[in-house]
């Protein structure tokens, strides 16, 4: 999908592809090992700049290159925010490193649902030495691929020559090859060096930047290049490494089905001895359980049904990455949903002020399972106040500049620059 492609034109399109059986092609992130900040600084349980993780402390490209304080401070209370996600997400065919950060204020009682309490920062490092090394490696890779193709062609010609020699008659004339037809060697090499959608950092499990084949093969970075600087001056949640793999769904199970929620609400009504047969489902739910009422309201929301379907297939996903694709909306209500239901050619997501001729495109979103992982310590300690007053979002959607532009004057002496990008939070409905 190009950066100029439009978002869905109406609510029907937001879930039409799933109802028709079309399967998505996003990448999903799942939590892996928990990070340990109390051990040795060189521990394998500490992240590097080329890892993707939720929680923990932010990593900058180096100690002296950090974002402005205003970028990482809550727009409501002014306190430093905590890291929700750090994703190493270099773009296909680009020679520079790129990281996406999502921060949120930990004072959820005071700042939840307020403007500026969740922010997204995009960081780029255009280190000329590393970029030159990468360019050289790419050139070597292309040269090696050409040599392999040439060798394959030579082998094919040898096989053809052997075939001709086998079927020459005594007078030297060539006869018809009884095994004629399509030449089995005149096909694309199934083992040719092509790269499909894969994690851009190999085994570290970070999101791929696109769903297209990548001509770039990244070199192995040295410890100095890849370690980054851990900034412990921030409040933090428990940190977990994230690994990424293509989304998998089964076509037969795509149609959304929330009947089980209706059953649970009805069952709860029976258990409580409700005698009002004429009471509507919503009024019963409101009387018995605010959460049940909330579910009852959501059952009529097609976007929520679609969201629930995705979670049913991969319930432990914490991250969804689909550069240039469409986000999964938690709700069809509110300004975020409106931004992705434009009837015009362009999205209603604001254009980047620092690059007004460009558009923003969807890149990734955090999924609600991340809340459980980030709140693991509160759950383990049975801290009811922290849980009740904790994070209450359904999804956090990130859109970045389609041209991945940052003004040249933003880059420091280390060739590092930071800029804020668009973040849309769909909060849970208040009960």
UniProtKB/TrEMBL annotation:
Start-end of Polar residues biased regions: 172-216
Stretches assigned to the Programmed cell death protein 2 C-terminal domain: 301-427
Annotated coiled-coil segments of the chain: none
Region feature Disordered, mapped onto this chain: 171-230
Pfam family, one: PDCD2_C
Listed GO CC annotations: cytoplasm
Gene Ontology biological process terms from the UniProt entry: maturation of SSU-rRNA
Protein name: Piso0_000474 protein
Species the sequence originates in: Pichia sorbitophila (strain ATCC MYA-4447 / BCRC 22081 / CBS 7064 / NBRC 10061 / NRRL Y-12695) (Hybrid yeast)
Phylogenetic lineage: Eukaryota, Fungi, Dikarya, Ascomycota, Saccharomycotina
GN (gene name): Piso0_000474
């Amino acid at each position: 999908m190009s950066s100029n492609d439009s978002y869905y034109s109406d609510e029907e399109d937001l879930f039409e592809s799933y109802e028709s059986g079309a399967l998505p092609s996003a990448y999903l992130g799942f939590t892996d090992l928990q990070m340990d900040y109390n051990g040795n600084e060189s521990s394998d349980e500490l992240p590097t700049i080329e890892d993707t993780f939720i929680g923990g402390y932010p990593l900058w490209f180096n100690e002296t290159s950090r974002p402005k304080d205003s970028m990482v401070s809550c727009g409501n209370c002014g306190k430093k925010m905590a890291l929700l996600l750090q994703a190493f997400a270099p773009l296909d065919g680009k020679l520079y490193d790129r990281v996406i950060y999502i921060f949120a204020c930990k004072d959820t009682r005071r700042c939840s649902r307020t403007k500026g309490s969740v922010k997204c920062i995009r960081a780029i490092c255009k280190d000329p030495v590393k970029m030159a090394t990468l360019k050289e490696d790419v050139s070597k890779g292309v040269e090696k691929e050409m040599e392999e193709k040439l060798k394959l062609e030579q082998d094919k010609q040898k096989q053809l020559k052997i075939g001709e020699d086998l079927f020459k008659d005594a007078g030297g004339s060539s006869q018809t090859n009884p095994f004629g037809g399509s030449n089995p060697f005149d096909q694309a090499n199934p083992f040719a060096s092509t790269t499909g959608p894969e994690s851009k950092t190999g085994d570290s499990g970070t999101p791929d930047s696109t769903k297209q084949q990548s001509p770039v093969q990244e070199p192995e970075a040295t410890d100095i290049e890849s370690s980054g600087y851990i900034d412990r001056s921030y409040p933090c949640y428990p940190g977990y490494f994230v690994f990424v793999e293509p989304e998998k769904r089964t076509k037969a199970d795509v149609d959304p089905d929330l009947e089980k929620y209706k059953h649970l609400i009805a069952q709860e009504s029976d258990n409580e001895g409700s005698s009002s047969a004429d009471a509507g489902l919503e009024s019963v739910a409101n009387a018995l359980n605010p959460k049940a009422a909330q579910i009852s309201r959501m059952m009529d929301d097609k976007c929520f049904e679609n969201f629930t379907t995705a979670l049913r297939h991969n319930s432990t996903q914490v991250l969804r990455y689909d550069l240039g694709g469409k986000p999964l909306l938690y709700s069809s209500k509110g300004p975020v949903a409106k931004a992705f239901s434009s009837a015009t050619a362009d999205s209603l997501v604001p254009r980047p002020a620092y690059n007004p001729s460009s558009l923003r495109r969807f890149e990734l979103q955090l999924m609600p399972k991340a809340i459980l992982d980030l709140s693991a310590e509160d759950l383990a300690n049975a801290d009811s106040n922290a849980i009740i007053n904790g994070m209450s979002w359904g999804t956090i959607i990130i859109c970045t500049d389609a041209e991945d532009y940052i003004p040249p004057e933003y880059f420091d002496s280390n060739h590092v620059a930071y800029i804020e990008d668009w973040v849309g939070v769909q909060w849970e409905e208040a009960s």
